[in-house]
Fold this sequence. Notes:
- The longest helix is centred in the C-terminal third of the chain and has 20 residues.
- The chain is globular.
- The strands form three sheets. It has a four-stranded mixed beta sheet with strand order 5-6-7-8, with helices on both faces. It has a two-stranded antiparallel sheet with strand order 1-2.
- Helix 1 packs across helix 4, helix 2 packs across helix 4 and helix 3 runs antiparallel to helix 4.
- A hairpin with a 2-residue loop joins strand 5 and strand 6.
- By secondary structure, the chain is of the alpha+beta class.
Amino acid sequence: MARTHGGGRRPGIHVHPRPLLPAEIVDLGGVRVTSRVRTPIDVAMTGDLIRAVAAIDAVRFVPRIPAPSDPQPVSLAALTECLDRLGRRRGSASARRALALSVDCSQSPGESWSRVLMHGWGLPMPRLQTEYRFGGAQVFADFEWGPLIGEFDGKGKYGTTDAERAAALEAEKERHALFVRAGFEVVRWDWNDLVVDSRLRAKLRPALARHGLLAA
């Protein structure tokens, strides 16, 4: 709420008053909403690190091939300035932690969620969206630890129509085969492995250990 005091709690509602600048309120289809700079900061100040990092990653994202309809990425400096202006309010420490963990190359909330889990478990942090060229093919790994590739399989990345999904799944199979033929081990996971995160840990820890990246 755009005020500096008067917070409280009612059944089902927690009110956290924070000042809003005029530039932080925008019109979207006739509805007044907070801006792409302010919204992820408010999300981050709720204290949920996974949602916070996913929200910040989303607005920071810089697509490899931007489309005319893509929104302008929000800079880390702009997000930090917004948080600094709010001062030491409830949730500001959580938001700073999320800013520190955020990146500008996460292609889905699932990738962001995965990265927060890895960080929380103390696993070696991977390189992200590493580019490889196999013959004439250019491919990118979601997560890379040298000889180990991690791939998050989210429904959204496969398109919205049957034709798009079929083409994307075929391309994904070929990409997987390229990594395997080049000598990489590929570990894949999906939303179910994030919801029951012990499943993701059970996939990653042995794979990292096999390559000497983590004590068995």
